[in-house]
Write a structure and sequence with these properties.
This protein is an alpha/beta fold and 376 residues long. The protein has 2 domains: 129 residues, Glycerate kinase, domain 1 (Rossmann fold, 3-Layer(aba) Sandwich), CATH 3.40.50.10350; 220 residues, Glycerate kinase, domain 2 (Alpha-Beta Complex), CATH 3.90.1510. The chain is built from 14 helices and 13 strands. Strands 3-4-5-6-9-10 form a 6-stranded mixed sheet, sandwiched between helices. It has a 5-stranded parallel sheet with strand order 2-1-11-12-13, with helices on both faces. The longest helix is centred in the middle third of the chain and has 22 residues. The protein is elongated. Belongs to the glycerate kinase type-1 family. One of its GO terms (biological process) is organic acid phosphorylation. This is Glycerate kinase. Keywords: Kinase, Transferase.
């Protein structure tokens, strides 16, 4: 019997690798001749770099770059030499968490540092760059990122503008790089939102307030995005407003398509592709997954959605162990989940459940193994 372990992390309590270690130990204790394949997963956001680093044997590269306010910092990315693959997390150089609360304002922040990471990867010979765009502090539509790769954004007097959100309305001309560093390079964005570039559901209105923008600044930034969209349409022949997810990461979702030729992909699908997940699960009798919560939101770009999609294509039953379970049995059946349980003990507080995650998981898997593995 072949069992594939394909969990996400349990936030604040258990990594995917920890989950695999615990579950594998229980299963082999119950049935020593089991074939257990461990494939910890992530959805393109927090924790993805760690998963890819461990599974692909990628090297972590440290680079001196600019933070969202152009101050010097060190940031890192992953580079896999054999395939020339780079995985870059925008949050490392242009992240919200890099700023103190008083510094957070997307009028003044830039994605330039992320562009510096991309430039370094290109200089090392990267041919495929995967960009995780969660956790950004910016609403510059990617002009900072593009500037680090040779683009210039100038005003009506031909003066180069600082690549920050408040300067979007002042861009008069976009000057392309003399040398195309991206020739022959595949750029992919791990993107799981569908927000348009501008408008009430766009980058500024939806994400601007979270990043520190006032009501007036949100309106100003949205107008700047509309202005840039018009320029991109006239200069590049691309209507970024029609690109699903263009509003992601303060407009990076649209800017990266225009300036870098990037393609959008769901984060979990990118991770599965990089780990050759669909090949590895062939012939499995069960796929066991897990994450902190299993509910309706789990099927909007989350790891469990990707696991269930792959399992369904091969008619493999899925078992899910989670902390919080709020999904009807009917919905579980619809998505291919044959077994789901909350590992939390009755009456446990959240703090107690988090502290007891490892033991609770072990107990829950033992019960599953007795019911489903030994009988199988």
């Amino acid at each position: 019997m072949k069992i594939v372990l394909a969990p996400d992390k349990f936030k604040a309590s258990l990594t995917g690798a920890d989950f695999c270690r615990i579950v594998s130990g229980v299963l082999k204790g119950v049935k020593p001749d089991l074939e257990v394949t461990e494939i910890p997963l992530a959805d393109g956001g927090d924790g993805t770099a760690e998963v890819l680093e461990a599974r692909l044997g990628a090297e972590r590269i440290e680079v001196n770059v600019s933070d969202p306010l152009f101050r010097p910092i060190q940031a890192d990315y992953l580079f896999e030499t054999r395939t020339k693959l780079a995985f870059i997390e925008m949050a490392k150089a242009s992240g919200f968490a890099l700023l103190n609360p008083s510094e957070r304002n997307p009028m003044n922040t830039s994605s330039y540092g992320t562009g510096e990471l991309i430039r370094d990867a290109l200089q090392k010979g990267a041919k495929r760059i995967v960009l995780g765009i969660g956790g950004s502090a910016t609403n510059d539509a990617g002009i900072g990122l593009a500037a680090a790769l040779g683009y210039r954004f100038v005003d009506a007097q031909g003066v180069a503008l600082s690549q920050v959100g408040k300067n979007l309305p002042h861009i008069h001309q976009i000057i392309r790089p003399e040398n195309d560093l991206l020739d022959g390079v595949q750029i992919e964005l791990a993107c799981d939102v569908s927000n348009p570039f501008y408008g009430k559901e766009g980058a500024a209105y939806v994400y601007g307030p979270q990043k520190g923008a006032s009501e007036q600044e949100v309106e100003y930034l949205d107008q700047g995005l509309q202005h840039l969209a018009d320029l991109i349409k006239s200069d590049f022949g691309l209507d970024v407003q029609t690109v699903p997810g263009a509003g992601a990461a303060g407009g990076i979702g649209g800017g990266a398509v225009a300036f870098l030729g990037a393609k959008h992909r769901a984060g979990i699908e990118l991770v599965k592709d990089l780990l050759d997940f669909d090949t590895q699960i062939k012939g499995a009798d069960w796929i066991i997954s897990g994450e902190g919560a299993l509910d309706e939101q789990s099927f909007y770009g989350k790891t469990i959605k990707g696991v269930c999609d792959s399992a369904a294509a091969l008619s493999i039953p899925v078992a899910v162990f989670c902390g919080h379970l709020d999904l009807t049995r009917q919905k579980q059946k619809e998505v291919g989940i044959a077994y789901a349980t909350s590992i939390n003990k009755p009456g446990q507080s959240l703090e107690e459940a988090i502290a007891s995650t490892s033991k609770n998981l072990k107990d829950a898997v033992e019960q599953f193994a007795k019911e489903s593995i030994l009988e199988g």
